[in-house]
């Protein structure tokens, strides 16, 4: 299983925002510059996070992105679902309701999703050896 690059950027962007701008707005330009990615590309990812209710945005001279949800409540799964969508990773092409392979895969996915839902990204910012990549 592999998540897209967009999920990678979304997770890192939220963590960066927790560390640098919990109470202020960050522009897409500032975020894109930090991650050395196009602001158009990052803007699409940020739009998905806005639609999911994780962050919000305002336009104008003092505009930017800010948290619309308490940062302590944002889970890895919230961010992943915002970018990847909420769908099964494995779909049996045969008789799904009787397929033993489907059951094993579905059970494994539930365990992983439960773990990612329980892990809050905010916790990473408070780990002793935490260091965000400052390029």
Automatic annotation (TrEMBL):
Species of the source: Clostridium thailandense
Protein name listed in UniProt: Rrf2 family transcriptional regulator
GO molecular function, one term: DNA-binding transcription factor activity
Biological classification of the source: Bacteria, Bacillati, Bacillota, Clostridia, Eubacteriales
Pfam families hit by this protein: Rrf2 (PF02082)
Domain of life where this protein originates: Bacteria
InterPro entries xrefs: TR_Rrf2-type_CS (IPR030489), Tscrpt_reg_Rrf2 (IPR000944)
GO cellular component: cytosol
